[in-house]
Give the backbone structure.
Amino acid sequence: MLSVFSRVAWLWCVVPLILADGLLAADAVEIANRIDVSIDAKLQAENLGAAAAANEAEFLRRIYLDLTGRIPTASQAASYLDSSHSNKRARLIDELLASPQYGEHFGRVWRDWIAPAELPSEGNGGNQPIAATRKLGVWFAEQFNQNEPWDRLVYSVLTVDGELADHPQALFYSLVGTDTGIPQPAGATRAVGTLFLGLQLQCAECHDDPFRTWKQSDFWGAAAFFRNTEATFDGRYFASVTETFGKETSAKGKRSSKKTTRNDRAPNGSITIPSASFTNSGAVIAGKFPAGAALTAEARQPLRPVLAEWIVSPENPYFSRAFVNRMWSYFFVRGIVNPIDDFRPDNPPSHPAVLELLAAEFRASGFDIKHLLRGILHARVYQRANGSDPEADPKQLVKQVESFARYPLKLISTDMLFESLKLALEDPALDLRTVDPALSSKFGESTPIGDAYQEFRRLFETNEDDATDFRHGIPQFLALMNHPRLSGGGKTVERLLKEDLEPTAIIEHLYLGTLSRRPTREEADEAARFVQESAGPRVGYNGLLWMLINRSEFLLIR
């Protein structure tokens, strides 16, 4: 009987339009064409029409937000919209992938995929690794901007050994699967399964998974690779990670009496199921690769590098597909395999040919992330419009989004909103905290406990796993409508008035700098009347800018 590993490998090998490994990486346009051919064929078979191509303004704002996490400036928007270059979409994709904002944005994205919503802490919510988590995002940003191949990047995360100050990626083991910051084999196993393999192993931690083929022995066999992963603390919080065999540590610098040795007497390459797992506690489980062969380990052999080599191997049927599927889901809200971390034979991909094409191309390119993204972003499926007929059947619209026949309507993330507001207001130090103690005392407002960025994220928190989940409510809209730094026009209006521009030029600039498009004639006329009827030009333009950043169009990616 075929193993789970073999059955899954066989499943992927029988789908059509397979690009064999070993071929040279294809051109982005060729990849995009193959994507479109496969998706359009399925749409035709299902008698499902596709949306038209997005207009230039729609594409401009979408690609900026999706690739750089911010809207374009007014001048960037005008330059693109006025360009007559026949290949300007492709040129813009390359320009944005080469910008530092690309890495900064995806560094934040991966930071948030790794870090829990509530960071681990020591006692009563204290000493949370807020600064260290941000540094983890910066480390990811550097890797993305250097276009570090995905296999090398993941290998670096999984095998990291040393001080957090020198290796920000070491925080990974402190963030995943624990509320205390102490690395745990079970937490690392769950995180590695979902993030890098697309596998939900967690239900097998305490018992055999009744809905999948994973046994409890499979979960703890994988956890054995992390058994010797331990940490030291600097007196306050996590300071280093290393792979030890009990007493010794390779960590440098200041020691703490707080250490994390498990005192597991099982032989290296195996692990004892802890009592917290309820069933089979105390049983010794031999190490085993997820859905693969058993581990053979020497007495003092480091185990994380062994697992990392298996994970990033081109022969691993999960690694490339998991990343492709996750990035596809980032752009289109849902994965080709959905949920994105549940690869299994009875949860087949909606478009197996597309998944296999991209996964094989990703491997053939040497796990080149930018190359993969170019292929997706050049495709018609990405560049389709979101707009729909208001009289259309809602069920039909949902089906079109699920079948990638139109671009989904997405809420911009917290970071996107923060970066975009700073650009629209030309205020890089934008601070929406309550900064007047007198007002806080008078109206009973809560005192800020973090910096401007932390407090903004706290107020405008979004669902990082579902960009269609609109969580904003009364507190968020009250902040957008009433905060003086948002209603005061920022530095944008002040600068425009100093330049002594015509009213039509100022109105156009405000539209370009917020909605990334020029106003319609009706909008321009209405805005001009509003400014004329206001107490003065500054008041009028401030009000117009306030109106634009409070429109749903500003909060959404279309």
Summary: Residues 1-24, 247-258, 441-446 have pLDDT under 50 and may be disordered.
